[in-house]
Amino acid sequence: MTAEEIISLGESVKQGHLVTFYEARRAALSAEKQTLYKVADDVRRHFRGDHFQTCSIINARSGRCPEDCKWCAQSHKHHTGINEYPLISAQEAVDMAVHNARKGVGRFSLVTSGRRLTDKEIDHVVDIYHKVRQETHIDLCASMGLLSKPQLQKLYDAGLRHYHCNVETAPSFFPNLCSTHSTEDKLQTIRWAQEVGFAVCSGGIIGMGETLEQRIEMAIFLRDDVKAASIPVNVLVPIKGTALEDRPPLSTDDILTAFAIFRLCNPKAEIRMAGGRMNFANHQAEAIRCGVDASIVGDLLTTTGTGGIDDDMNLFRSCGRDPKPEWAGGDDSK
Questions:
Q1: Which stretch of DSSP H or E encloses residue 289?
Q2: DSSP-derived 3-state class of residue 140
Q3: Which of 7, 37, 327, 331 minimizes the number of CB atoms within 10 Å of its CB?
Q4: For residue 168, how many other CB atoms are within 10 A of its CB?
C-alpha cells in the first residue's frame, strides 16, 4: 500500500468505513510505516480527541490457577516462583484505590487468578468495591474470569461499569495456547457482561507466536464480535518457567504497526498500552503517536512496569495528551 493509499484509507475510516482484513494486511505490510503511524493517530484524534484514559490493575489473588494458558505465570502447570496468595483484604484494596485516585488515575481494577470466583468470593469483592466507593470516586473495573451473569450483575449493582475479559489472541490461534477454556467461553462471559450493562475491556497479547494475519484477525474480531469499548494491547514478556519462555521478542516496528492497525480497525475504542511496555520502553512516545489513547499505569500484575505513575503521567502530557480523569474535580480522591 502506498502512502497515498494509507492516507485515503484513514480518510475513509473517518467517514465510517470499516477496515477489511485485506486492507489492514496491505497497510501493515507497507513500507510507508511513518505514514501508517501518522494516519492511525489522525484517526485517534478524530474519534477520541486528546484525552488519555488511565487505569491501574491490582493483582487481588495470585497463582494456583487451574487453567493451562501457555503464557501465564499463574497457571498451576508452570513453576515460575511467583508469590501466591488468596484474595486480598478490603483495607489493602481500599488503600491502593485511594492512592491511585490521588495520583490522578482514572480507573481501578481488581484482577484475580483462576477460571472464576465463587459466589462467596464475589460477595467479598463486592464489599471491597463498596468500601472503595465510600472513599473515592475513581471509576471501577474488574477482571475475574468467566463469571456467570448473576455474578456480573452483583458487580454492576456495586457500582462497576467496566468488565475486563481478554480474548488473548486470534480465535484461530487460541487453541494452540490454551486447552482448558475456549474463545467461545470468553465470548459468553463478554455477552453476559454487556447484557448486564458493562462496557467491556477486551484485548490480548501479541508476540506469542501468532502471525501478522492473526493479529489482524484479533483486531477485527474485537470490533465485529466482541464490540470492545477498550482494547488493551499487551506485548509478551516471556517468563521463565512458562511454555513461552523462549519466544523471541517482537521488533519495535512490529509493535508500533500492531498499535496502528488496532486503531484503524477499531477507530472508536480505547486502544490501551498494557503489559510488556518494557519491550518498547524507549519508544513509548512513538506508540502513543500510533493511535494509542489509553494505558495501564504503575506496576503490572506479575511483571513490573516501566516506571511509576508520576513518570507515566509526565510521558502522556509530553505527548500532548490530557490524563486527567473524567471524574476528577478539584480533589483527585473523594
A1: none
A2: strand
A3: 331
A4: 23
E-strand stretches of the chain = 53-61, 107-112, 139-143, 162-164, 199-201, 204-206, 230-235, 270-273, 294-296
Q: What is the pLDDT of residues 78-95, one digit of tens each?
A: 877 788 888 999 999 999
Q: Please name the amino acid found at residue 294.
A: A
Separation of alpha carbons 293 and 54, rounded Å: 9
SS (H, E, C) 46-103: HHHCCECEEEEEEEEEECCECCCCCCCCCECCCCCCCCCECCCCHHHHHHHHHHHHHC
In this structure, what DSSP letter does residue 176 have?
Answer: G
CB atoms inside a 10 Å sphere around CB 232: 24
* pLDDT tens digits along 261-319: 999 999 999 999 999 999 999 999 999 999 999 999 975 444 444 568 999 999 999 99
**Taking the chain, what is the end-to-end CA distance rounded to the nearest angstrom?**
50
Cβ atoms < 10 Å from Cβ of 163 = 26
